[in-house]
Structures are given as C-alpha cells and as structure tokens.
UniProtKB/TrEMBL annotation:
Gene, per the UniProt record: MMS2
Superkingdom of origin organism: Eukaryota
Domain UBC core: 6-139
Protein name: E2 ubiquitin-conjugating protein mms2
UniProt xrefs under CDD domains: UEV_UBE2V
C-alpha cells in the first residue's frame, strides 16, 4: 500500500512549484496570503492561448482548497469574465466535470493540471473563437 501524502505537504509542494515558476507555460498560481497556514486560498492566472479570442489576455482566477483536498477537487472561479462552456456565466465557477483532463478527479491531480486543462479548453476549436466580454470585466 502506498502512503498518502498529507494535505499540507502536498500543498507545500504545489506552492514551491508555483512560486519558482516551474509550472506549465501560460499558467501561474500562489497563495493569496503568505501567512495562510491552512493554504486554502490561492490566486491563479492563465495567459490566453495564442490564435484564439483569448490571445493577449490575462485571466485571473481564485482557487479554494478545502480540508479534503487533494482527495476532493478544489473550487475554482474565474475572477475575469469569460465566455466558455463549463464556466458559470453568473459567478465564474468552473465545472471541473466539463474539463476532460480533470473530469474524473483523483488525488494525484493538481491545481496546475486544472489550469492547463482550462487553457486547453479555451484553445479548443469549438471555443477559441467565442465572443468574449470586454477585457477587465470581472464577476
């Protein structure tokens, strides 16, 4: 049997990777408050993928990792307004079940994986030309 990495150790690994910029291209993330000992609230950004209506835009997101993370997925909201299937038009909440890469959540998935999945979703041929709200609009 493989030992389960405790929540805070896992979040420290993700924080270190995010702070060192070792993550995927076009995605970044970090704690909202450096003294958040529970490491629950995170900010993230996604650079709009090239050759899409998202190009040259920076999308801000907030991520909340509950007490059961990583066994349960975090809650992800766009702060920047976006027109994208799987994102609630009223409040920006992301429906992870609509993102193929993370739809069947397991504890090995990370916040970075979610951000990469969102960026891929934005670049999908069916989504890349969707009309977008003016820049700097927020939920």
């Amino acid at each position: 049997m493989v030992a389960k990495v405790p929540r805070n150790f896992r979040l420290l690994e993700e924080l270190e990777k995010g702070e060192k910029g070792l993550g995927a291209d076009g995605c970044s993330y970090g704690l909202v408050e450096g003294d958040d000992v529970m490491m629950s609230n995170w900010n993230a950004t996604i650079l709009g993928p090239p050759h899409s209506n998202h190009e040259n835009r920076i999308y801000s997101l907030k991520i909340h990792c509950g007490n059961s993370y990583p066994d349960e997925p975090p809650i992800v909201h766009f702060i920047s307004r976006i027109n994208l299937p799987g994102v609630d038009a009223q409040n920006g909440r992301v429906e992870l079940a609509k993102l193929q890469r993370v739809s069947n959540w397991n504890r090995d998935f990370t916040m970075e994986r979610i951000l990469v999945a969102l960026r891929e979703h934005m670049a999908h041929p069916n989504h890349r030309k969707l009309h977008q709200p003016p820049e700097n609009n927020t939920y």
